[in-house]
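Chapter summary example.
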Amino acid sequence: MTGEHYFTAEPTTAANPREVEFSVAGRDYTLASSAGVFSAARLDPGTAVLLRKAELPSAETTGALLDLGCGFGPITCVLASSAPSATVWAVDVNERARELTAANAARVGAADRVRVATPDDVPADLTLAEIWSNPPIHVGKDELHGILLRWLPRLAPDGVAWLVVARYLGGDSLQRWLVEQGWQVGRHASQKGYRVLRVTR
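The structure predicted for these 201 residues follows.
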C-alpha cells in the first residue's frame, strides 16, 4: 500500500495504463485509464447506476455541465456525447485523472467542449445547468459536505444535480442532510444498493 487515494493531488503510483469499456444509452465507450485514479480498472458500479438511471442531458441541452470528481472521465464523456451544445467542466483534484479525462474527451470528439480543471480553476461566477457526481465519500463526511456546499449553490435557478451514493455509505443520511440545507431532494432511483438523488433548489 502506498497510502495514496484517488483524491491524492499528484499520484506517484506507477501509471499502468489500461482501457475501460462500457456502454451507455446505446453508445459504446473505450476510455483510457491508469492506476492512481478512482475505479481505474472498470466503470464504477455507482457511476454505472447513475448513468443508467438519471436523466441524461439531451441534444437540446445548453449551458455548463459539471462532472464533480471526474476520475478518468466516464461521466464527462457521456455528458459531452449526449449534449453536443453544452460545455462540460470536468473537475478533479487528481492531476492524473485530469490528464486522462482530457485525453478521453479527445477520444470521443469532444475536446473543444470539455474544460478540465482543478476546483480552484473553475470561474467563480460560472452558473451550472447541471451537476453530476459520484461524490468522494471516503474523504469523510465533513469534507464531503464542504464540497457539496461549495458547488450546489452554483446551480442555475432551474438547474439540477444528480448524485449517486451507496446506501451502506450513507446515501440516506446524505439525502436528509441536503434537505436540512434547504435543497429539494428526491430519490430518483435505487439499484444494486445505490441511491440516485435528484437535487434542485
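To summarize the output: Helices lie at 45-53, 74-82, 95-107, 141-151, 171-180.
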